[in-house]
Amino acid sequence: MGHHSCCNKQKVKRGLWSPEEDEKLINYISTNGLGCWSAVPRLAGLQRCGKSCRLRWINYLRPDLKRGSFSPQEAALIIELHRILGNRWAQIAKHLPGRTDNEVKNFWNSSIKKKLIPHGLSDLATFPNLPNPSASYEGLYSLNANPNLISTTQVQQDHQVYIPTPPSMAQVFNQGDMIKMDQYLNYNANLFPVPPSVVPSPLDLSCYDPTWSSLGYHYRPQQFDHQHVFKQEEDMFINNEAVANYTTVVDKLVDPKMATPLYGDDDDDDAVLPMGPVMPKLCEITKGNECNNIPSSSVSQDQVIGPIASLSCFPSGSYPHDHHHVVANQMEYFDAIMSLLPSSSSSSSSSSFSPLSCSQFGMNPTFPSRWDP
DNA sequence: AAAATTCACAACCGCTCGAAG
DNA sequence: CCTTCGAGCGGTTGTGAATTT
């Protein structure tokens, strides 16, 4: 079998990474930042191909990874996003702060998929057209009531569609246990044809890692390219008005201004209001490494939450302008957005969430897993 | 207790895309 | 244009731990 070109030039090690290799890679990136991956192995003194280094960093060593089990909320979001995006794991992962495409993909294949397959719903993204929309049964509502909200069905059909009213997300996931996750999955699987309609969650908006925020840091994603992300989606569905609507919604939620890198350029045109400590640089996290010339910047509170607050579900002034509150109640807002959907009498949106604990959204900043004692 | 099986997830592979020359 | 190269993505495989028989 052929190897990638960068792997052919020299004898490279493959397989699991050792702690020593991890340390080398961390030290190198801490000192030099992200650059040309093909040069990293040589410069870092690793017998690996650049591709392997990149993968190791992105999927495992990055300091902003959350790790740990997926919460039911995250699982629900993955399901919803998968309905829209299909197996575009990288796109899905972008909406799950601290999660990688690989992680999401693995989670889908190992946990979610097997729950859905028995019900024949494993491929929701390409689920065929709905049955006759005139079918009437309790708990149906029209998505057309809110043109900003779409479902997969709208992606596939350009006319009015009806879907079953889902139980409130808050109702289902209040306690965050997987039993309820199962109930949720079973509910959706049993309610032909599709799970609840899709609304981009406030989780989508987490262009900052919530854990950093909960710790009092403000994170500006390093390489979040909003324009690029949605350009790709628009290209893919260029003639699909429904998807255009979706991106419009997400555009509201993810302010392009936030695409300003965490480590901004030298221009002053992205100056923002200082808001407490900035997320520590990698070299500040990695013990014993010296910071170098990476300029940091902070992010204004309005930049982070402004787009969310502008949603109609938060009447003027009702959006809590407090980072900790925002993070602690993401699912509350998710549910609030869900409640925007015209709902039947059987659907309640009034239940409330317990604030998510730091541990629920906590990441494991240590270098993990197999090599842990 | 040992073997077999299942499971989660880390890592690899092949491919596409875009930029640069 | 064409070629080359690097980055990134999704599918697949490999590995080790956990569980079951």
TrEMBL record:
UniProt keyword Transcription regulation present: yes
Any one GO CC term of the record: nucleus
Protein name: Uncharacterized protein
GO molecular function: DNA binding
UniProt-annotated stretches for the region Disordered: 348-373
Stretches of the chain forming a coiled coil according to its record: none
Species, as recorded: Ilex paraguariensis (yerba mate)
Keyword Transport on entry: no
Bias (Low complexity) ranges: 348-359
Protein keywords: DNA-binding, Nucleus, Repeat, Transcription, Transcription regulation
Domain Myb-like: 9-61, 62-112
InterPro entries reported for this sequence: Homeodomain-like_sf, Myb_dom, Plant_SW-associated_TFs, SANT/Myb
The HTH myb-type domain, residue ranges: 9-61, 62-116
Compartments, as annotated in UniProt: Nucleus
